[in-house]
């Protein structure tokens, strides 16, 4: 079974959490694309979706799923999204696809965060995957200098503009022993919109696609 088959299996397993007539929070990325395709098979059973990126919105609409404005939704049962890394404490690094800020907003509103991944995403300590930080463009150099003070190696993600019109700094060479604390410290730097640590609000349910099938934790 290859990585894509594992992602697809995890994504399809998330369907069991989708409640009748509900609005579903939808993340971004290759694993979520499998979820959106699966969700389309239930489109007449749900009220619609809220989306964390222009890319997911387009895919949802193309498959006939109504996408609501986030400001018109005051609560969500579930948010389904992938991750770039996840620990046994369900802390994550996200934002490999630059969608971290909208992902964090939708996740914040949802009661249950369901993380769908293949088994390569599990790590003992976060930080091997470079940590994405979304930054207001004029603050880019300042934020990079502040990140160096925190012990990271910042790299500007060339050519990438987020859906919010900002830039991404990827932080290399971090061994993140206290993700909740680092998440707060990075968010305190002026010019940072948000960072890709999802630790203060991590996942609630993890569905991992493996050779042996989907494991729920
Ligand atoms: O910005 C992108 C998101 O945080 C994705 O959820 C994350 O990068 C995982 O993506 P994929 O499912 O493609 O591995």
Secondary-structure map with pairings?
Layout: H1 3-13, E1 23-26, H2 30-39, E2 48-51, H3 54-62, E3 76-81, E4 85-86, E5 92-93, H4 100-109, E6 110-118, E7 131-135, H5 140-149, E8 153-156, E9 167-172, H6 179-187, E10 192-195, E11 197-198, E12 205-210, E13 213-216
Parallel strand pairs: 1-2, 1-3, 3-6, 6-12
Antiparallel strand pairs: 4-5, 5-11, 7-9, 7-10, 8-9, 12-13
This protein binds ribose-5-phosphate (R5P).
Binding site for substrate: 28-31, 81-84, 94-97, 121
GO molecular function: ribose-5-phosphate isomerase activity
InterPro entries: NagB/RpiA_transferase-like, Ribose5P_isomerase_typA_subgr, Ribose5P_isomerase_type_A
Keywords:
217 residues; alpha/beta; Rossmann fold; Alpha-Beta Plaits; 2 domains; 6 helices; 27% strand; globular; binds ribose-5-phosphate; Ribose-5-phosphate isomerase A; isomerase; Ribose5P_isomerase_typA_subgr
